[in-house]
């Protein structure tokens, strides 16, 4: 057999064993590495390696206190196509917690409803100086970083319809000119995230990156917000890199195909 043939056989075997692990978890519920290995009669190091890959894609989740694994939310989405907001919150929360801890800023997960943005989950870093609860609040598309991500990724006719309406000015920095907003949306698409400063509230800056579903549609945004003296031209690039990576991780956990 050629070396290429052996690689293909090994890859197929890994896929087969990964599916078997999911079947064991579906049938038996939360299980540890030893129990799974005994059920499948394979060594624990192989089970550990496969579980790590499955966990990275959101197909399994680990109970950190007990070290047991259970079926992840990506399996639920693949099986039933369900994309409820509360499922998305649970799926993304570990990533949002890590981002908040790493940056020291508040992290929100938001979806859009018509012409508004609604925050569905929030993680406040212990280093944050404020603790405004944004969950459940409706905010405008044109004056928020999350809204601009949605506008930049929705069909052009839908975005044009929103921008054609009277746009409220919340601060002296709010952009209300449709032509200028369209230019900003081009930049958002090009760099993969949106950044605003004091457009919705004086003293508040925010960055948002997209969260994509299995078919590539932007179904949510992950947002990093904090005071303008911390989120400014000196720090935006580094924060944006971490934010986009977090958005990518949540997207992968939802089943979005990783490229490259």
From TrEMBL:
Keyword Heme: yes or no? no
Q: Which domain of life is it from?
A: Bacteria
Keyword Glycoprotein assigned to the entry: answer is no
Q: Which GO terms describe its biological process?
A: glycerol metabolic process; negative regulation of DNA-templated transcription
Which PROSITE patterns does the record cross-reference, listed alphabetically? HTH_ICLR, ICLR_ED
Q: Which InterPro entries match?
A: GAF-like_dom_sf, HTH_MetabolicPath_Reg, Tscrpt_reg_IclR_C, Tscrpt_reg_IclR_N, WH-like_DNA-bd_sf, WH_DNA-bd_sf
Domain IclR-ED: start-end pairs: 74-256
Keyword vocabulary terms for this entry: Activator, DNA-binding, Glycerol metabolism, Transcription, Transcription regulation
Chain ranges of the HTH iclR-type domain: 12-73
Q: Name one GO molecular function term.
A: DNA-binding transcription factor activity
Free-text function comment from the UniProt entry = May be an activator protein for the gylABX operon.
- Protein name, please? Glycerol operon regulatory protein
Organism for this UniProt entry: Streptomyces oceani
């Amino acid at each position: 057999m050629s070396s290429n043939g052996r690689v293909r056989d090994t890859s197929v075997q890994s896929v087969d064993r990964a599916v078997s692990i999911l079947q064991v978890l579906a049938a038996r519920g939360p299980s540890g590495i030893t129990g799974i290995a005994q059920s499948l009669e394979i060594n624990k190091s192989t089970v550990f390696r496969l579980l790590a890959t499955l966990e990275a894609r959101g197909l399994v989740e680990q109970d950190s206190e007990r070290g047991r694994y259970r079926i992840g939310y990506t399996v639920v989405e693949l099986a039933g196509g369900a994309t409820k907001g509360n499922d998305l919150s649970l799926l993304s929360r570990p990533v949002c917690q890590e981002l908040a801890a790493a940056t020291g800023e508040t992290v929100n997960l938001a979806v859009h409803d018509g012409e508004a943005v609604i925050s569905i989950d929030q993680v406040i870093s212990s280093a944050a100086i404020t603790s405004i609860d944004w969950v459940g609040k409706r905010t405008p598309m044109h004056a928020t970083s999350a809204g601009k991500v949605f506008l930049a990724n929705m069909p052009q006719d839908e975005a044009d319809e929103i921008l054609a309406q009277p746009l409220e000015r919340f601060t002296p920095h709010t952009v209300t000119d449709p032509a200028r907003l369209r230019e900003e949306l081009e930049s958002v698409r090009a760099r993969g995230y949106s950044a605003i400063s004091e457009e919705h509230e004086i003293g508040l800056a925010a960055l948002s990156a997209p969260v994509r579903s299995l078919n590539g549609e932007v179904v949510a945004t992950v947002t990093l917000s904090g005071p303008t003296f911390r989120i400014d031209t000196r720090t935006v690039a580094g924060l944006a890199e971490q934010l986009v990576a977090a958005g990518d991780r949540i997207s992968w956990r939802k089943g979005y195909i990783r490229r490259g």
